[in-house]
Amino acid sequence: MDIAVNTTNPETLVADLAREGRKAQAVLSRMSDADRASALHSAAAALREDRKTILAANADDIAAGEASGLTGAMLDRLRLDTDRLAAIADAVDSVADLPTPVGQVISRDERPNGLVIERVRIPIGLIGIIYESRPNVTADAAALCLKSGNAALLRGGSEAVRSNRAIEAAFARGLESAGVPAAAIQLMPTQDRAAVGAMLKAAGLIDMIVPRGGKGLVARVQADARVPVLAHLDGICHTYVHSAADPVKARALAVNAKMRRTGICGAMETLLIDTAFPEAAELVADVIDAGCEVRGDERAQKLDSRIKPATDEDWDTEYLDAILSVAMVDGIDEALAHISAHSSGHTDVIVTEDAGAEDRFLKEVDSAIVMTNASSQFADGGEFGLGAEIGIATGRLHARGPVALEGLTTYKWLVRGTGQTRP
Amino acid sequence: MDIAVNTTNPETLVADLAREGRKAQAVLSRMSDADRASALHSAAAALREDRKTILAANADDIAAGEASGLTGAMLDRLRLDTDRLAAIADAVDSVADLPTPVGQVISRDERPNGLVIERVRIPIGLIGIIYESRPNVTADAAALCLKSGNAALLRGGSEAVRSNRAIEAAFARGLESAGVPAAAIQLMPTQDRAAVGAMLKAAGLIDMIVPRGGKGLVARVQADARVPVLAHLDGICHTYVHSAADPVKARALAVNAKMRRTGICGAMETLLIDTAFPEAAELVADVIDAGCEVRGDERAQKLDSRIKPATDEDWDTEYLDAILSVAMVDGIDEALAHISAHSSGHTDVIVTEDAGAEDRFLKEVDSAIVMTNASSQFADGGEFGLGAEIGIATGRLHARGPVALEGLTTYKWLVRGTGQTRP
What we know:
Two copies of one chain form a homodimer.
Chain A: H1 10-30, H2 33-49, H3 51-67, H4 72-78, H5 82-96, E1 105-110, E2 116-123, E3 126-131, H6 136-147, E4 151-155, H7 161-177, E5 185-187, H8 193-201, E6 208-212, H9 215-224, E7 237-241, H10 247-259, E8 268-274, H11 280-289, E9 293-296, H12 298-301, E10 308-309, E11 323-329, H13 332-342, E12 347-351, H14 355-364, E13 369-374, E14 391-393, E15 401-403, E16 409-420
Parallel strand pairs in A: 3-4, 3-6, 4-5, 7-8, 7-12, 8-11, 9-10, 9-11, 12-13
Antiparallel strand pairs in A: 1-2, 2-16, 14-15
Keywords (chains A, B): Amino-acid biosynthesis, Cytoplasm, NADP, Oxidoreductase, Proline biosynthesis
Family (chains A, B): Belongs to the gamma-glutamyl phosphate reductase family.
EC number (chains A, B): 1.2.1.41
């Protein structure tokens, strides 16, 4: 890039990057899927070739992070090693081999006047990705955007800047060797926060922004963006154990939904137990015995002496930790009302053997993902068979739940005539 | 409605209306499609029953409009008569009988672990419609929203306020008699412009806003909205007459695309003529003879002495009138470049008998609707077989081109398990 970072203001910089990105996207969108796939395979190969450079850059990031006092968890998210880097390159190869939605005919109709009308999937255009410390996002997001024919403008966290630059350099070299303009995937050349602001305002230049990171980042992006945002702010996921739940399944599901990994957005944060469910005390004891702090409403507190009192705030809190709020509910109506009031619209689950309760829950819960008799931790594009995901969205338009390649496309209408004029 | 309009500020008013609307929507979304359809039929019947009241209210609007100096075109948009009102009621009946997208299974997958994963179409929620002088929008938009299981908050133009209130009163009475809460369709009870501002900012309360009206309205909505907007600002539609165009078809299509109705968004505004097309002069003469003013670039001016010179501005102007800009282009590359630079992304057309040129145009033009050998005036939900449309969108996300019932839905993921925990 020969864009003069130091001498331009953030709006000009973003406009320049967007223009280059959009030009590259026009080239990408004329390539075949096979050509886009082989460009991704050469990007994966370049990541492997540049292994030493990337790991050295990452070591510098880690050293700087240690010096500036990053927490152990942050350093762990930042750290790459041979295995993690191999996994990043493998993931790029996997995305390359996914079936593409681009070119798919969504609908086709031949009108009485002979017009043939099709809706065909096309790339969205230029996608902005704003993320924090995980350097793997650089390659993952780039691969998903490129596979779906989109260009990407990436802005990673300052703590990962050296790793991200090394990964982007390798990725871009791989793409170029396969005939894709390097500007198809651009990393913001400055860590100036004003450039993030300029991305958020760049309606018409950037078509969609996907924030990847903590709630602070997502909230800022959602508050300031004039560009459409695909994101979820919270994952306040509920599991409702219905009166007709199988106790064995319910107990296993509760422990798994909360404790398998407590820090992911699909982790259960609130457990609703029907007062008619016979093994409520055992259920809660299982979760506590697995190492979880439980905060209960008045009725739940009676189940186990180790339960702490919940405050009103608990019902609206995403702990992302080994903490669980538990409320007792009198039947499915009360469960549905609680979920309607407190769910963040991410993933909510019912455990029941009763088909009527199951149907009603599936129909009435208005979240992006509604599950029966399964762990909310399955809320993931890979588990849904989508191959990979760019993120999970809780908005109502365009795409919801796990968003993968299809969510990175839009469509256009193709109308083929033979000279028809409109009467 | 017992909402105290005079004593609340616009934000509180919109929040109150939205809360009532969302409650009604929850009821709607639990009804069957057959029940929603019969509610619409009873709304249509109520519109017919209230014929005299509605026409009297409209006569008052017309009288007020004449007194305040509305133009003839504006009065014509505002005016209802027995036939127009019958057509409005008939349109509600037609929408009632359209196939519903709600409940449609978009995809289904059974995972190796036994989870059955479906994506199912659901209503979006509460749709805001902001429109100008046409009172038919009150019933049309209400019917489309209700048929797709959505509630609507309508804000019509001040000049039509009496007509809109009478139509909404009849519509709501019809719905209520069929068991739908009247708040499913609410008309903003004040014409205070600050209430429009409050609608535009009501992210999380209103799920989507559709502006229906002139460019000034749409531009304001797009500039100020924090709620997602489905709209098109301009319809700068091109027709490119390729060297291999059939001259007979080309001449008929040009006249129809421009002159059938000059004031609609799908009307051609710019004609691109290939320098290798043999009947350029005849083509332009046909358009001029049909009563159109033609403004041409230097080469086009040589085709006919009646052509006026075009300025740079003409290529970016939506005339919505019997005016056409004409540019000569050397081949398809130049045509594609002109369209890429000046199209508003609404509808662009190629006229050609050459399959290669046709394919390339369909692939490379990035507009919501791309046509071959047909009049751009076909850009319409009814002509596309969608039954009716809420509007035409030129944005890239969610829905593009003519937006009908499907564009008023979103989806959720339903995951059915048998006790699966995630490893």
